[in-house]
Every structure is written in structure tokens, then in C-alpha cells.
Design a protein that fits this description.
The structure holds three protein chains of three kinds. By secondary structure, chain A is α+β, with helices and mostly antiparallel strands. Chain A has 17 helices and ten strands. In chain A, helix 4 packs antiparallel against helix 16 and helix 11 runs parallel beside helix 16. In chain B, strand 6, helix 2 and strand 7 form a beta-alpha-beta unit. The chains are: A alpha+beta, B alpha/beta, C mainly alpha. Chains in contact: A-B, A-C, B-C.
Chain lengths: 409, 161, 162
């Protein structure tokens, strides 16, 4: 029996009975299950070991982030954006910061833009590393977890050096960045891009790319054709793994990404292995971008020169009455953003993460909506996993790289 | 091209172009835009304009459909204003499959009822939850923070709601 | 064999202790956590288990996928109203003796999210032994909490929980 799940995309469901006349078995999978990448729950109908129907049930990590943002002032909201897609905090910061800046009509100086790019690419690397470690673990390559977290820890050390915090840096804020890069940070980044990471990506490829077990578990599993991926709204490595060269950093550049020389990683394989290859390539490209950003890091201020938006420097407070007034106003009621609405999309490790803001001109947002890549990509799960074995479903969920914090907000 | 008869108003906000359509004809308008090449529904959401005096809003709930043309990279935001309790609007999940979950989320959070939706149930909150959390007259909730005047206002909904 | 002969045959290889201390020592050095990741803190919990920090030095590297085989639940991240009954079910499925570490600000108090969707502190539904501050705490913080818990387990011995 063929059922249409929308837009001419059909799935072959066997109906109420299995292939050999047996009954379909409904299995609950999650929300506490070690292989679901968080608290994803799937209600799966099985015919023997074959998946015949999947109903994802989400919301187990619903945090009320959007409601919380309405209760926080504009500069306080940054803290909450970190925790929404917790594998790529600076990228969420950037979406929010760019949206607020577009509404305010300000543009950050070049050094801040370059530092933002550096933080975003470091995060993309760490996000892909966590993905590769956990997916490797789920498919039986336990050593991947150890190797990947070694490099992730180097990135966390760099985060700590530049912002004082390992994961949720809140580094990128409306109006600029939190602090300037220290010489030690630049030194660490130099070593990381020149030696550590280029060598280690080769190491990961040596461990996985030609590994027969890895190939058998991923090649031909979870096929998603380019047309289906487009219709289902998939973005990020899911779309590029299906051979569509769509990357927001190239397609709709933001924060100076048009000045960097890098390629869009694509793969025509359309399966789990293709998505893996895309992420490996993206890691190499990220190292390339980091290298360019470090070599061409411009001098200058790291924040916009707007006393209505950012507090004055410490020295000014002792000499200028006006600075004290601005400081007081900023920390008692915050700044207000002109009425209007704006949508800014950025490319996170998972796809298009965007931030829609509607302002009513007060010092708190009227509505903040996060467009999350995981939420949309997860809808393609049924399309990818149908008629596969249940063990392959793990590979498919793994390579879709959904982060449930991002999905449920 | 989208027929001018469907467009109520159009403009640009912070660089994003938008157009307002009649809520009864939102399906026709999105269908026309889709034929024009806007093939991706980036997101769908709602804004509650309760007690918002910054502009002159035609109705309390504003539904937003952000569309993107993947070839020309143009974006357009389609807005439709609806009132009522619960507000009703046509579903567009048959035009854009990703709208399926987005509409369920909007129903869950704002109580907007999407006609012809195949499975309009709560998606983020538990099934037995009462109320629609992102409405402005729904309190933020949580626990009382002592010595914080600001937090008291979180606990309660706006007065005139 | 008489008692003197037994003592002679063992020579110096002799330790006397109470049963409580022995059991506490055994339990304390083999706390198996449930593999129960919720949000951001789960990533740091994984980092604690990897080679850099290595929770295995404290006998807790065996993250069990089934609550039936675990002694310790690390509530790593925010607990939503929808997740709360499931968390309690998992806790109930764990065999006694069992302990709970509330990892991070969200699990302990709700953290920055003081709103309708989150449980304001996991101690409303399960008894918590050790709270870790931080958002998320460093892997070293989790190790410290584990060491505090080990001290308590060793002190508790075979007595039932208060």
C-alpha cells in the first residue's frame, strides 16, 4: 500500500499486516535510550526487524526558550540563545546578534566580524567532532569518541581562553563581541589550525573512511534524494549530502563570510556515508577558514561605538558624567530596539538556524522565534528510515545529527 | 506572479520584504508564490500582538510564512492577521511538507487552529497541558524570585488581558 | 584446623574491618551511572567519560544503558514537565541502593529558565545526593561530585538510607 506523506513523496507502507501475514509490532523507542542523541522518542511499527512506520514524538526537552526571551531584556537574551542548540552556542548567538543589529541598523567593525567567524568555525568543528564521536560510538567504533573528544577539549580550552567559559560562551553579543582575543588564544589557534587539526582529520579518515564495518553500516542506508531533501526542507549536511550545493555562508553571506575562500562540501551518495563525507570535508574547510581569518585578522575596535547599546569602557566612567548615565540606563532598563521585524539565517553545524525577532519598540522583544534545523530535518526521518532494519535506523538518526535542545527549544 | 487581488499590503522591514494577505486566502497566496519559485518554507510562526500599541494591528494574531526562492535567493514574508478564540486559518501542509510540524507547534503554543491539518495535536507540551504558553496572556511561570520586582510581573499575565 | 593454625598460615596477610566498611568500600568504588543524558550537561558528562578526564579512574566508567544495572543517576541537564514522569520512572526502576547527582544549574534549580516548561529543580521528584553548580559544570566538577558521593557511600556502609 502506498501512502503519500506530502508533495508527491510516497512511502510504501504494508498496512496492518507484515510481509508474511504476521502483525506489525509497535515498539516504543526512547525518550531515554542511549542511541537517540538525547531525548528523542520514536514510536516505530516493525514487521520483523523492518521499520514500517515511524512517528517521532518530541518535546521532552522543551525549555520555553522563546517565552523566556520575551521576559528578558535584549542584552540578557544572549544567555538563553547559547542553550538552545547546545552544540553550537556561538552560532546561535550570531543569529540573534545579527537580527538585533539589523533592527538597530548598526554594523560591527571588521575585527569583531573576523572574531565572530573564528568562534563560529571553531564551534562547527567541535559540533562535528561531537557528532562523529557519538555516531561512531553508536555504530561500534568506540575509539572515535575518545579521539574526537580530545580535539573538542582543545577547542573548549580555546573557548575558555577567549571568553572564560567552556561551552556556553555568550561571546557574540548584539553590538560586537565580549572581549578581544588574547595573544595566548591566537597562539593556540595558530597551533591548532597549522598542526593539530589538519593532522587529526586525516587520522579520523584513516579510522573510518575505509573502515569496512563503517562502510557496511552507512553506504546505501538512509537514502534521501535531492528532490525529496528540497521538498522536505532539509538543510545543512542533510541537504549537501544529497548533492545540493546550498550553504548559507555562500548563498546568503553574513558576517564577512564572502571574503573567505572555501568550498561547499557536497556528496552525491545521498546516504549516511555521503553525510559523513560532507562533515569530514566541512571540517577541513573550517580549518581553512580559521587559517585565513587568523592570517588576515584586522586590527581595530571589537564593538560598535554606540553608548546607547553597549556600556562605556571602565576608564570613561571615572571621568565622564554622561558615561555614568549611559551605564546606569543600560543596566537598569536596557536599550530599546525600534519597532519592526527581521529574520536572519545562519549556517550551523546542522543546517539553517535562524532567528526571527519582532520588536514593539520596548526594551524587551515582543517575539523571538528560532528556526531550528533539527526540527525540520527530523521530519525527513520517516522518509529515510522506512523499510530499513531497526539497527540501521540508529545510523540514520545518528547521521541526521539532530540536537534535541535545538529541536524542542 | 501573485495576483494583486490577494495582496492587502506590502512593505519592507529592516531589509526583509513582506506582504500581507487576506487570512481566508492564505492558501491561494502561498500557492501562487510557490508557482513563482518560492519553493522553500523556511518557517511558519505566529506573533501575539495583545496590548501592543507600537503599531496599528488589524488583529491580535499575526501568522508569518517566510518563503525562499532557492534559485534567486529572494525571501518574502507573508503575513496574515486573524482574530477569534481560537483563531482559524487554512493549513498549508499540502503545499510545503515542513509546515506540518510548524503548524502543530503554532497550535500548541498559540492555539491557532489550522483547518484541514492531518494531525493537529500538541507537539512540544504534554498532551494534557492546559493553555497555550506563548500567548501573551499566559504567564511565564516558574518560581517566585524574592526581592525581584521584575519577576513578579512574570508570574502574572498583563492586566487587561 | 584450629584458629591458631589458621592465623599462622595467613601470617601478616590479615585485615580486620567491619562489614559496613567493606561494603561501603566496594560500593563506593564501583558506582555505575545510568547513561541518562538530557541536555548540554550530557555533553560534558560524555567528556568526563573520555580519555582526557577519565572517570574510569574512580570506577565509574561503566555507563549502563539500562537503569536496572545502574547505581547512580546523573541528571545532566534541564528536566521539562514532559520529561519529569519519565525521569521518575527511570529512578524507580533502578535497584537499591541508588544515588542521584543533580548536574548543573538547570537540574538543581531550573537555572536561567525560570518558566512554565521546566521543572524548577529535579529534587522535587527524586531525592538528590549531590548538587553541582555551573552551566554546564566542568568535567572536573563532576569528578569532584563523584568523590563527595563516594565519601558518603563509604560512610553509609550497610545502613539503610535515611
Amino acid at each position: 500500500m502506498t501512502t503519500e506523506i506530502g508533495q508527491g513523496i510516497t512511502v510504501d507502507r504494508t498496512g496492518e499486516t507484515g510481509a508474511f501475514g504476521g502483525e506489525l509490532l509497535t515498539v516504543n523507542f526512547g525518550p531515554h535510550h542511549p542511541s537517540t542523541h538525547g531525548v528523542l522518542r520514536l514510536v516505530v511499527d516493525l514487521d520483523g526487524e523492518q521499520v514500517k512506520r515511524i512517528k517521532p514524538v518530541i518535546g521532552y526537552l522543551h525549555t520555553g526558550i522563546e517565552k523566556q526571551m520575551e521576559a528578558l531584556r535584549w542584552q540578557q537574551g544572549v544567555v538563553v540563545t547559547d542553550r538552545h542548540d547546545y552544540l553550537s552556542p556561538p552560532i546561535n548567538n550570531l543569529a540573534y546578534a545579527l537580527a538585533v543589529e539589523r533592527l538597530m541598523g548598526v554594523e560591527v567593525p571588521p575585527r569583531a566580524q573576523a572574531l565572530r567567524v573564528i568562534m563560529c568555525e571553531l564551534t562547527r568543528l567541535s559540533s562535528h567532532l561531537v557528532w562523529m564521536g557519538t555516531s561512531g560510538l553508536e555504530l561500534g567504533a568506540m575509539s572515535m569518541l575518545m579521539y574526537c573528544f580530545r580535539d573538542r577539549d582543545t577547542i573548549m580550552d580555546m573557548n575558555e581562553e577567549i571568553s572564560g567559559f567552556r561551552m556556553h560562551t555568550s561571546y557574540i553579543r548584539p553590538g560586537g563581541v565580549f572581549a578581544d582575543a588574547t595573544p595566548r588564544f591566537l597562539d593556540m589557534l595558530d597551533r591548532f589550525t597549522a598542526k593539530t587539526m589538519t593532522k587529526n582529520v586525516d587520522e579520523y579518515e584513516a579510522l573510518l573512511t575505509d573502515n569496512p564495518i563503517w562502510r557496511r553500516r552507512t553506504i546505501g542506508i538512509g537514502r534521501l534524494s535531492a528532490e525529496d531533501a528540497k521538498v522536505l526542507g532539509a538543510t545543512g549536511p542533510m541537504l549537501r549530502g544529497s548533492g545540493v550545493a546550498w550553504d548559507l555562508r555562500k548563498a546568503m553571506p553574513y558576517s564577512g563570510y564572502e571574503n573567505y575562500d572555501f568550498e561547499i562540501a557536497t556528496s552525491d551518495l545521498c546516504d549516511c556515508y555521503g553525510r559523513y563525507l560532507v562533515r569530514i570535508k566541512e571540517m577541513r574547510e573550517s580549518v581553512k577558514i580559521l587559517r585565513q581569518a587568523l592570517d588576515r585578522l584586522p586590527d581595530g575596535p571589537i564593538n560598535v561605538d554606540d553608548r546607547k547599546m553597549l556600556p562605556p569602557p571602565r576608564e570613561e566612567l571615572e571621568t565622564s558624567m554622561e558615561a555614568v548615565i549611559h551605564h546606569f540606563k543600560l543596566f537598569t532598563e536596557g536599550y530599546s530596539v525600534p519597532p519592526g521585524d527581521v529574520y536572519v539565517a545562519v549556517e550551523s553545524g546542522r543546517g539553517e538556524n535562524g532567528c526571527y525577532i519582532s520588536s514593539d519598540g520596548t526594551h524587551k522583544p515582543r517575539r523571538v522565534k528560532f528556526r531550528s534545523a533539527s526540527f525540520v530535518n527530523l521530519q525527513a526521518l520517516e522518509r529515510m528510515a522506512l523499510n530499513h532494519f531497526i539497527a540501521d535506523m540508529i545510523a540514520i538518526i545518528g547521521t541526521a545529527d539532530t540536537v534535541l535542545g535545538d529541536c524542542d527549544r | 506572479m501573485i495576483p494583486e487581488a490577494l495582496v492587502v499590503d506590502r512593505g519592507v522591514s529592516a531589509g526583509d520584504s513582506w506582504l500581507t494577505v487576506d487570512p481566508a486566502k492564505v492558501h491561494d497566496a502561498l500557492s501562487a508564490l510557490k508557482d513563482e519559485g518560492y519553493s522553500l518554507l523556511v518557517f511558519l510562526t505566529c506573533v501575539d500582538h495583545l496590548l501592543d500599541s507600537s503599531r496599528n494591528w488589524p488583529a491580535r494574531y499575526e501568522l508569518l510564512y517566510e518563503l525562499r526562492n532557492l534559485e534567486t535567493r529572494e525571501q518574502v514574508r507573508v503575513r496574515a492577521f486573524v482574530d477569534g478564540d481560537p483563531p482559524h486559518i487554512d493549513s498549508v501542509h499540502d503545499l510545503f511538507p515542513p509546515a506540518n510540524w510548524d503548524e502543530r507547534e503554532t497550535y500548541d503554543m498559540f492555539g491557532v487552529v489550522f483547518e484541514n491539518h492531518p494531525d493537529l495535536t500538541r507537539i512540544l507540551m504534554p498532551d494534557d497541558w492546559v493553555g497555550h504558553p506563548l500567548r501573551r496572556d499566559y504567564p511565564v511561570g516558574g518560581e517566585v524570585v524574592e526581592f525581584s520586582e521584575e519577576h513578579e510581573t512574570w508570574q502574572t499575565a498583563p492586566e487587561k488581558a | 584446623m584450629g584458629i591458631e593454625a589458621l592465623a599462622e598460615s595467613l601470617g601478616q596477610n590479615f585485615l580486620t574491618t567491619t562489614l559496613g566498611k567493606l561494603v561501603g568500600w566496594g560500593r563506593g568504588n564501583s558506582v555505575w551511572p545510568a547513561q541518562f543524558g538530557l541536555a548540554c550537561c550530557a555533553i560534558e558528562m560524555i567528556a568526563t567519560a573520555t580519555a582526557g578526564v577519565d572517570i574510569g579512574r574512580f570506577g565509574s566508567e561503566a555507563f549502563r544503558a539500562s537503569p536496572r544495572q545502574s547505581d547512580l543517576m546523573i541528571v545532566s541537564g534541564r528536566v521539562s514537565q514532559k520529561m519529569a514522569p519519565i525521569l521518575r520512572t527511570i529512578y524507580d526502576q533502578m535497584p537499591e541502593p541508588k544515588w542521584v547527582i543533580s548536574m548543573g544549574a538547570c537540574a538543581s534549580t531550573g537555572g536561567v529558565f525560570n518558566n512554565y516548561a521546566l521543572l524548577q529543580g529535579v529534587d522535587k521528584i527524586v531525592p538528590v545526593d549531590v548538587y553541582i553548580p555551573g552551566c554546564p559544570p566542568r568535567p572536573e566538577d563532576l569528578l569532584n561530585a563523584l568523590m563527595i558521593l563516594q565519601e558518603r557511600i563509604k560512610a553509609q556502609g550497610i545502613l539503610p538510607r535515611q
